[in-house]
Amino acid sequence: MTAARRRWWSWTHTWSSLICTIFALLLCLTGLPLIFHDELGPNPALETGTDRGVRASVDAMIAQALAERPGEIVPYLFYDRNKPIVKIPIAASVTSSPDTFFYKVFDVRTGTALGIDQPNQGFMYVMLRLHADLFAGLKGTLFLGAMGLLLAVSIGSGLALYGPFARRRRFGDVRQRQGRRVRWLDLHNVLGIITLAWFGIVTLTGVINSLAAPIELMWQSGQLAEMAAQSRDAAAPTDRRAPVDLVLAKVRAAAPGMTVTTLAFPGTPFSTPSHYAAFLSGDTPLTSRILQPAIIDAASGEVVAVRQMPWYAVALFVSQPLHFGDYGGLPLKIIWAVLDVVTIIILLSGLYLWFTKRRSGRRAAAGSAPLAAEPSR
């Protein structure tokens, strides 16, 4: 690498890192507890000895939930992937923000209401909002996505800088006798190259996750509208509703081997005024994360269409478990957490190296030629 090219890569790495590092630190710190969201989140006590195949009436659960909050409605049903429970949100309208939902949780086998803290309150909720959108909604999400792109540039430029450096040194070598800054530079480089693949995957999947809202809009205006158009009464909203138990039974019969994870009621952003929308998943670590939509006529309960999700939606579903490492059980989560802590050290050491170089000027570059470049990840 020529001196001019090294300076260009160094400038790119320095400024892309400086702009996004504070936000990357925030995402790493908030992402650490979110890796263990299943373990740290609400954990309702379930009865033992009840057959998982038994299903109580969902309509009865909905009636019980609405009795506590008269005048409100149920916009969705959310089934847990790992536990026999269903979360029933209650809202003022079908278009209410999820942040305003009040949740009732039931054992799907017995219909028993379970005591649980509201998921839109508490420490984990604050961590999730900071991680997802900085409490700024879509603008915050897209801003963090832009920071993720800068972080990807920082990772790529750091790799370009590491190449010439690695050719002159043994892998993992940390020079102990050439001052604190040199030790931190070597440690920064070594940790950066060790976590390169993981850091790159988490960064890119985070960017994809930040595009969830645009992806949802594409799906709603494309596949959802096309599926709903197959119904003869697609343009005729009706107040007549088929029982939810019937809707769920029809969906399960139309998609054997699949599990209903979400049911969107008519009029919500994920359905139409005259249709329910069910989202189903498989039973493997991968297919359990890839949803398959079904559209159901609201009046009759008949399934109108069942489709595979388009590629851009599948990319979103696959990126979510990769981002948090929650597709391989607790051992993988522990590995993700360790790598997250290492990444925090890399980010902090990068800031330290930049500040010390600013303070001491060109004297900090004394030693070997690679030290003239900015620290690489």
Automatic annotation (TrEMBL):
Residue ranges of the TM segments: 12-36, 142-166, 187-208, 334-355
Keywords attached to this entry: Membrane, Transmembrane, Transmembrane helix
Keyword Cell wall biogenesis/degradation appears in the UniProt entry: no
Name of this chain's protein: PepSY domain-containing protein
Record lineage: Bacteria, Pseudomonadati, Pseudomonadota, Alphaproteobacteria, Hyphomicrobiales
